[in-house]
Amino acid sequence: MSPTTAIVVLGGGPSPTLTSPLPFVLPRYLAALSLYKTSPHTSKILCLSAGTAHVQPLTSCSYPIFESTVCGHFMLSNNIPPSDVLVDTFSYDTIGNAYYARNVVENLGVRKSIIITSRFHIERSKEIFDWVWGLKSGKNSKLDLEYNSVEDIGLTDSDLAGRVEKELKGLRGFEKVKRKVEESYNNNIDAWMFTEHDLYSSEGLAKRAEGGCDYCSGYGGMTSYGGGGTCGGNESSNFSLVVFGVIIGACLSEFWKRRKFKSKNKNKNGFV
């Protein structure tokens, strides 16, 4: 049976271990699990986020344990079939989340997507997803997009206040991004992403590899990124992981193209 619903779970930062989801992220996982169980034969769970620009990722034997891996492990541990759990190893921020998720969901051919994140993050997520998915309307332009926010638990009052402040600043910054993409790129988000975005462009990645960890200062909400108030690690390590994620994303994109091509030929000729 073909899937009709994508349950899209936004990441929240690197976890301390593979089996220990961050306290404020766990409600997102539980909400996704509950939604899946209402329609297990027609749903797919998409776990988002390779990592974050703010905090060094968890590693095992020098191999990155992506945020989405922790989410995927949780779903598998709760008896969700592996074929129904997809993980994102490409995106490192909310714009990247929306960009990657849109491509995956379009290839799945589902009619509805439910975006799950924390209450403190839902407003900016909605603004970004609505915008990115609108620009990348493609063949599935009538896709139904819903939002599900979960309680802000597992954060101190000061950490939550710091994150709320950061979200408000992020919304103002996002308005500048929208104007930039519209005026300078004629709403071609693909061109902007891989030309100017610090986490996906060659120039931005090179600068991050050379520079300091400036993303990690300026407000008191680092725990809401899994950082415990510190940046952690060095930029060369983060750079390598970001590049690795971009490579994986490109490979996945090529895989989907080849799969669609084979499926088309099979339907047309009766063989691949």
TrEMBL record:
Bilayer-spanning residue ranges: 239-256
Keyword Secreted: no
Keywords: Membrane, Transmembrane, Transmembrane helix
Organism: Triparma laevis f. longispina
CDD domains tied to this protein: YdcF-like
Top-level taxon: Eukaryota
Pfam short name (any one): DUF218
Location of the DUF218 domain: 6-132
InterPro entries: Cell_Envelope_Assoc (IPR051599), DUF218 (IPR003848), Rossmann-like_a/b/a_fold (IPR014729)
PANTHER family associated with the record: DUF218 DOMAIN-CONTAINING PROTEIN, INNER MEMBRANE PROTEIN, PROBABLE PERMEASE
Record bears the keyword Transmembrane: yes
A GO-annotated cellular component: plasma membrane
Name this polypeptide is given: DUF218 domain-containing protein
